[in-house]
Amino acid sequence: MLSNSEIEKIPVSNFVRESGLVGVWCTNAPSHVEAVTEQFFQSWGLKYVATWYWVKVTQGGEAIRPYGSQTEKRPYERIIFGCSENRRFKNPPPDMCVVSVPSAIHSQKPPLVEVLQEYLPEQPACLELFARYLLPGWTSLGNQVIDLQHLSLYESSACAPPPLSSATTSTAR
């Protein structure tokens, strides 16, 4: 966990190309939303473009919890987008929703690669800070990047090679 002042000091502008797009996953706390749109983007040399919402639903399509009051946890999170002033590509439109069943793994966000494709160049150079898993073609930085690559999170399939211990045992016969 980093404070807003620590996040603001991250030199994001060093990683953003002239036509770059930055997406920030944000809690629903008004102080965090304001920090991203008013402080972070200004410090990073970006302008606010849009806010999208990740709506978390059950497998039956219902919100995972009631929308409730301002003080209760909500069934959605925000993705706030900023871009460099000289951006040559179409910007994400405001108020879009990404709807998905959340992972059982705490704080795992859905990959946005496909839904952002029309707002990125053909061969984008993408970077995820505070990453929790690897994405093909992306640079992922964080202290938990490979946590979700652990074998215990995957199921064996008929096409998969046998585990090394089985292969070693069968070849020793």
From TrEMBL:
Pfam families: MT-A70. One of its GO terms (cellular component) is nucleus. GO terms for molecular function: methyltransferase activity. Belongs to the MT-A70-like family. This is Methyltransferase-like protein 4. It comes from Apolygus lucorum (Small green plant bug).
